[in-house]
Amino acid sequence: MDLNPTQFESECQASLDRFFAARPDAATQKRANKALRMLRSTETPLKGNAQGWAAGVIYAMYNDGHVPCGVPGVLNAEFEQLMGTTMGTARYRAARVVELITL
Question: From residue 69, how far is each of 62, 66, 76, 84, 87 by CA, in Å?
Answer without folding.
Answer: 9, 8, 10, 19, 11
